């Protein structure tokens, strides 16, 4: 039991480093950039509160687990914002490989049974093929949009984001798992993007 607890606590201490990863997105009030630990917590809350937007086959408990785990790899890789100058790297084979290596290291800190289970949830989120993962990805994409709206445009101005970029990089993924949610959010973009 001691060895198992040692491994579990080693993982939990390592996961604390996620609080040190600064994201491109600001807090909703625009006062500072959020960290990835805050982002993961906020997304878990999104899943809990917006569960009524999920399809009938979505298991919100699994979605919450995915969202808590989904950015742990940023401990090693960092945040790769989709609208930044380095945004082209987002989703690239190079970033995917780096994230897979990070997942191997981080989930490998856990006892094998638990590490395998949590890694499988992370991989499911990344693949975005199951109803749970598709909904989780939708929430992951919509949260920064809502922060940018709340902060008066936030990083959209900084990164010169166009509505077409937002629709392609974000809107399609949100609409795939939460169509009503994207319709709602899209309606709030008019003051930032007149072409909406």
From TrEMBL:
Cited InterPro entries: HD_domain (IPR006674), YfbR/HDDC2 (IPR039356)
Listed Gene3D superfamilies: Hypothetical protein af1432 (1.10.3210.10)
Keywords: Hydrolase, Metal-binding
A Pfam family reported for this protein in Swiss-Prot or TrEMBL: HD_3
HD domain span: 15-182
Keyword Hydrolase: yes
Name of the protein in its database record: HD domain-containing protein
